[in-house]
Specification:
With about 190 residues, the chain is α+β, with helices and mostly antiparallel strands. The protein folds into two domains: about 40 residues; about 130 residues, Ctag/Cox11 (Ctag/Cox11 (Pfam 04442)), CATH 2.60.370.10. It has two helices and nine strands; from the N terminus they run αβββββββββα. The strands form two sheets. Strands 3-1-9-5-7 form a five-stranded mixed β-sheet, with no helix packed on it. Strands 2-4-8-6 form a four-stranded antiparallel β-sheet, with no helix packed on it. The termini are far apart.
Length: about 190
């Protein structure tokens, strides 16, 4: 009798483990569907390849605001050179972000972008971005990091203001700078 109860318990616990594993894999798609349905989390796409195909619409202007935030454990100074710029849809634009490592040790970082309003994220194309790669800074080192982008001509005309926000994460524990320098030969 006790052996049957033990087998049932083990079977149930294994089912719970399998369900948790499946839920872990399903979490990202579920999150994406929820964000899309609720209109939040304006994730930007990867690198844009068709910059030459865009024609500039000089009859419209869009204000692009730039925000930078450090994740809770990030100590770097991180900010855009300007808070905002006015652009024409279809034109290639650039903003420089400054990053400085004030710590006494090398650090690795990764920037994660988001666009608001989220409905405009599909119309914001980055041709070059420091967010595509990890950044490694030595103690006291400061760098200028460009983001080049195009606001698509097909963006709805009622959208006159976009916000590009970056959150900078310390990834030193997962990607030590020493290992990164050794891989690149530096």
């Amino acid at each position: 009798m006790a052996e049957i109860s033990l087998k049932k318990l083990v079977t149930r616990l294994l089912l719970v483990v399998v369900a948790m594993f499946v839920f872990g894999f399903a979490l990202v798609p579920i999150y994406d569907v929820m964000c899309k349905a609720l209109g939040i989390n304006g994730k930007t796409s990867g690198q844009y390849q068709d910059a030459q195909r865009q024609q500039v619409d000089t009859s419209r202007q869009v204000r692009v605001q730039f925000l930078s935030t450090n994740a809770i454990d990030m100590v770097w100074d991180f900010y855009p050179k300007s808070d905002d710029i006015v652009v024409h849809p279809g034109a290639v634009n650039e903003m420089i972000f400054i990053a400085r490592n004030p710590s006494d040790h090398p650090m690795s970082a990764q920037a994660i972008p988001s666009i608001s309003p989220s409905s405009a994220a599909v119309y914001f194309h980055k041709t070059e971005c420091f967010c595509f790669t990890q950044q490694v800074l030595q103690p006291g080192e400061q760098i200028e990091m460009p983001v080049r982008f195009i606001v698509d001509r097909d963006m709805p005309k009622d959208v006159k203001h976009l916000t590009l926000a970056y959150t900078l994460f310390d990834i030193t524990a997962r990607h030590p700078p020493v290992a990164a320098a050794a891989k690149t030969g530096g």
